[in-house]
Specification:
With about 160 residues, this protein is mostly beta strands. The chain has a domain at about 1-110. It has strands spanning about 1-5, 10-15, 20-30, 35-50, 60-70, 75-85, 85-90, 95-100, 105-115, 120-125, 135, 140, 145-150. Strands 3-4-5-6-9-10-13 form a seven-stranded antiparallel sheet, with no helix packed on it. It has a two-stranded antiparallel ribbon with strand order 1-2. Strands 7-8 form a two-stranded antiparallel ribbon.
Length: about 160
């Protein structure tokens, strides 16, 4: 049995026997350590025994990510994420099915590395201030900013 998430007022787990087929591919471009891009896509087919849909699971996902490295001190990251339609159960009845529309999420981040141990970052999430529901009746935060500092205990950053 594979758990399939179903969100009503709170999250519940719905168990069903499922065959899940995932067709995916990716294409990357890297010009030295300065500039890199990755385009990734996946398409899903869900064959379920008892349930009508794989609740809250997307039909497809597509992502385009990019990173620019300036003198190994400043890193600029950008993401564009696309999630396909999902099906959810309604509040009162398991026979009520609702379709959640596809959504796009655009993010931008900048990191300054003081040295291999210490860095500071600022991430701008959902730049388009899109109003969508990642889960049924749980809207995402619109445009938001996260600022932080990282310290590596091992002296190496991921990607070094």
């Amino acid at each position: 049995m594979i758990p399939i998430w179903s969100c009503k007022i709170s999250s519940n787990v719905v168990y069903d026997y499922a065959e899940i087929y995932k067709f995916s591919g990716q294409v990357g471009y890297k010009r030295s350590d300065k500039l890199q891009f990755l385009l990734r896509g996946s398409y899903f087919v869900y064959n379920l025994l008892n349930e009508d849909y794989a609740w809250n699971k997307p039909e497809y996902t597509v992502s385009l990510t990019g990173r620019y490295n300036l003198q190994n001190k400043i890193f600029v990251d950008a993401d564009i994420l696309l999630f396909g339609k999902r099906y959810v159960q309604g509040y009162n009845s398991s026979s009520y099915v609702r379709e959640l529309a596809p959504y796009v999420d655009i993010n931008l981040g900048v990191e300054y590395r003081y040295n291999k141990l210490l860095s500071a970052f600022v991430n701008f999430n959902n730049i388009a201030a899109s109003k969508y529901k990642m889960w049924n009746n749980y809207p995402v935060q619109r445009f938001n900013v996260m600022v932080g500092v990282t310290y590596s205990l091992w002296g190496e950053k991921a990607g070094d």
